[in-house]
């Protein structure tokens, strides 16, 4: 199944400044129609899954930006409604899904922690942060949850416990570097954590395309579940300078990632798309390559 690409870069391409701590979640309040337009562009490009604008959305984050709690809760739930409305506007009979994005605790910190993990907080703090947000998203009735860009196996333990309690389908993906989570734990250990019935696929996102193949093979070997894979464009994020560095490898720009994706599919990746810096044109090329 073809996933969508990055939401933030697609919004930036439409002229939006996402440099504040709320990132793309700010537009849930300021420009929800723009989020809808990006979801439509990805569906139109061939994506069968829209990932909601809730990756960096949290009650704590909105409150820090001056948004009252009740409004923050409404905005988080609205991320699902926006994507569902766009999905339902297509009348060609194809089954499209809405995945409610659940980003890591580090995304709320807006300091690059989602690329490091090891936040220095307790499991109880992580549970108190993730639990209410998961409940809000599930109450908005997405098709599944996209628990994504998780850098740390300790955070994964907390999230998997919450998923089991909610009893709601989800995919679970780590942010990785080589054969390790961003926090440095071996993927063979990390992939063993989300092996519960509620998790329908396990894999990676927000990594380089070159890291995907081995990780997909490891995820399938450890879990016996289908794999999910949606890497970045090939660039890496400099959290200090707040810009992307390195070469860009995407289907549209270099013709390199789409052939790689065929190998990921052959290895057992059932859900394939793109993350940061991967746009609608790239997803269109990916869908064509995998058709």
Describe this structure in a few short sentences:
The protein is of the alpha/beta class and 291 residues long.
Secondary-structure arrangement, i.e. CATH architecture: Alpha-Beta Barrel
Helix amount:
40-55%
Distance between the termini: 10 Å
Percent in strands: 15-25%
Structural category: alpha/beta
Quick one: overall form?
globular
Unreliable segments of 5+ consecutive residues: 251-256
Could you name the key traits of this structure?
zinc, 43% helix, alpha/beta, TIM Barrel, 291 residues, 12 helices, seven-stranded parallel beta sheet, transferase, two-stranded antiparallel sheet, 11 strands, HCY_dom, single chain, S-adenosylmethionine-homocysteine S-methyltransferase activity
Description:
It is a single chain. With 291 residues, this protein is of the alpha/beta class. It has a single domain, classed as TIM Barrel. Helix content is 43%, strand content 16%. The chain has helices spanning 7-13, 26-30, 32-45, 59-64, 69-88, 105-109, 123-139, 153-166, 187-190, 212-223, 257-267, 280-290, and strands at residues 49-51, 97-102, 144-150, 170-174, 176-177, 180-181, 199-205, 227-230, 236-238, 243-245, 269-272. The strands form 3 sheets. Strands 1-2-3-4-7-8-11 form a 7-stranded parallel beta sheet. The chain has a two-stranded antiparallel sheet with strand order 5-6. A two-stranded antiparallel ribbon has the order 9-10. Strand 3 (144-150), helix 8 and strand 4 (170-174) form a beta-alpha-beta unit. Helix 5 packs across helix 7 (123-139), helix 7 (123-139) packs across helix 8 (153-166) and helix 10 packs parallel to helix 11 (257-267). The longest helix has 20 residues, at 69-88. The chain is globular and about 45 Å long. Residues 1-290 form the Hcy-binding domain. It is an enzyme of class 2 (transferase). Its EC number is 2.1.1.10. GO terms for molecular function: S-adenosylmethionine-homocysteine S-methyltransferase activity; zinc ion binding. Pfam families: S-methyl_trans.
């Amino acid at each position: 199944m073809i996933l969508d690409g990055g939401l933030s870069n697609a919004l930036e391409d439409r002229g939006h400044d996402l440099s504040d701590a709320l990132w793309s979640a700010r537009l849930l309040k300021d420009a929800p129609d723009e989020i809808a337009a990006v979801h439509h562009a990805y569906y139109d490009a061939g994506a069968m899954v829209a990932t909601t604008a809730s990756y960096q959305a949290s009650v704590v984050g909105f409150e820090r930006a001056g948004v009252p709690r009740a409004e923050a809760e409404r905005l988080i739930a609205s991320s699902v409604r926006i994507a569902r409305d766009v999905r339902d506007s297509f009348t060609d009979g194809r089954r499209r899904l809405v995945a409610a994005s659940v980003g890591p605790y580090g995304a709320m910190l807006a300091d690059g922690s989602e690329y490091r993990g090891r936040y220095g907080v307790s499991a109880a703090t992580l549970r108190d942060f993730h639990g209410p947000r998961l409940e809000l998203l599930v109450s908005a009735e997405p098709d599944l949850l996209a628990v994504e860009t998780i850098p740390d196996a300790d955070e994964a333990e907390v999230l998997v416990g919450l998923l089991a309690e909610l009893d709601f389908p989800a995919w679970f993906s780590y942010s990785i570097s080589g054969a390790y989570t961003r926090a440095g734990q071996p993927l063979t250990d990390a992939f063993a954590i989300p092996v519960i019935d509620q998790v329908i696929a396990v894999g990676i996102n927000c990594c380089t395309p070159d890291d995907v193949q081995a990780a997909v093979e490891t995820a399938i070997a450890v879990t016996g579940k289908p794999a999910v894979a949606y890497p970045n464009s090939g660039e890496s994020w400099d959290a200090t300078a707040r810009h992307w560095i390195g070469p860009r490898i995407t289907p549209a720009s270099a013709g390199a990632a789409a052939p790689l994706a065929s190998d990921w599919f052959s290895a057992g990746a059932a859900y394939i798309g793109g993350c940061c810096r991967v746009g609608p044109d790239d997803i269109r090329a990916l869908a064509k390559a995998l058709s």
